[in-house]
Structures
1.
Amino acid sequence: MPEPSLPIGRHYPWLAPLAGFSDLPFRLLCREYGAAVCVTEMVSAKGLVYASSETTDLLATTPEDRPLVIQIFGAEASFLSRAVALLRDQGFVWFDLNMGCSVRKVLRQGAGAAMLDNTGNALEAARVMLDAAGPGMVGFKLRLCPDEARAPFSRLKTLALRLQDMGAGWLTLHPRTAKQGFGGKADWDALTELAQCLTIPLLASGDLTDARTGVRCLDATGADGLMYARGALRNPAVFAEHLKLCRGEAAAPLDTDVLRAMILRHIALTRQLAPDKPRFWKMRAVIPRYVRDLPGARALRDRLCRCADLRAVEEALDIFWYTIKNSASSPVPQEAEKFSGRDA
Ligand SMILES: Cc1cc2nc3c(=O)[nH]c(=O)nc-3n(C[C@H](O)[C@H](O)[C@H](O)COP(=O)(O)O)c2cc1C
């Protein structure tokens, strides 16, 4: 049976690929808030072919984790082709080629944004992936270019049109140069320009810090859809807020009880689906982002660094919430007082 097409549009916000973060528990959390499609962290084509355990771990999924796009990085067509074939054998159907990563380790391999400097190789990589996956089943995530701002936009446009002609299902543009990394301002004008010349869907990425900004980006650029990245890392409920705004409803900020429930849900999903040490360590980095605007956030982060397991994380959070609820009115227990003191 042919695969249904991926939901792309204003009412279908995606979770962007986030190396180190868009793992199975986080994807499921974002889906519970309304993420229509999730993209995995980037997975190495060579790692897939050589079946490295690190790479295999990144493919952990469940039936609820659908539709799922596997993002691959690599520069060599032979590996990309074999990687897609192997993934298809495992039941995965949608793929994305990372042509935007600005991390030096990736650029040195000629992968990520370095592919934008070698159009011939980029097109060959696209061709083999589309051959292996089928037309429409692969997307390409682009940056403006490796190191110049707008000058070579025509080159990016040419590449985008070639990818479209070859059967790309969608394109994503993060309109920064690789040299910019995540700094500076995303160039939404470039999104507008690219959206105008494509007939396949264009997904916007870049500076989508919250739902209001996301909807504004869609309105301003004419992009067909978008991906939340750092906006989702700060607030996975951004998807619910986005959908509310699209329905014309007001999106209220999270109150502390809802925020608390969200964090506990993330911990529960991590405990259930990824209880191993590295995933747990990641939670110590993730939680402070969720509470960063609340008093005591810094102290919580320091305390989390000393936690050795998820139980200890939950205890640290209990003290944090207790402190928040009671700081204005009633005395806090000794432990909580110590804990909140440094941030007071
Ligand atoms: C921690 C982190 C990890 C990322 N990992 C990937 C990745 O694996 N593949 C990719 O194409 N982009 C990756 N990105 C880029 C995001 O998908 C997105 O394009 C970028 O953050 C711009 O969106 P934003 O400004 O709304 O965060 C990553 C970004 C961050 C912050």
2.
Amino acid sequence: MAEKILIAYYSKTGNTKRAAEEIAKMTGGTLHRIVPQKTYPDSYFATVAVAKWESLKGEKPALADKVEGIGGYDKILVGFPIWWFGCPQLIKTFMESYDFDGKKVYPFCTHGGSGPKNSTRDIKAICPKADVKDCFDATKNLNETAVKEWLEF
Ligand SMILES: Cc1cc2nc3c(=O)[nH]c(=O)nc-3n(C[C@H](O)[C@H](O)[C@H](O)COP(=O)(O)O)c2cc1C
């Protein structure tokens, strides 16, 4: 039986969305857009300030919706932009909102040059009982060979 793959992603300006859509084409996975209840500012610099503040306060922004039947997926891909050298606080909310114990979790990111930085560590800290793989750098490595190797096909 084919593996069931979930591709959950957050994207503010479209880069991670495009990466998630490419990965969906390559894998046949189901896309789920992670949406915050709050609205981030339009401007890049204002968002940088809001994100810094969220991270300093350890704020966990609320999610606008839920993934149904997450337990039924064999591989859970979680995509996001790198914010302040790690994953956005919203992704931490997402990781805390479901039971990932014993699940295979494949983080992936887009970024502006820093690479995945602390994002694998951030996610492992939230779900220590999940099998969290190293964060895939979709800005640098988005091709079918690299994606299939990352996803252990
Ligand atoms: C709040 C904020 C913080 C960011 N921090 C970093 C960073 O630490 N390293 C980096 O390379 N890019 C950083 N960026 C750039 C984004 O990671 C990059 O533009 C990403 O591809 C945006 O993805 P999106 O279009 O899916 O929102 C930051 C952008 C924002 C808005």
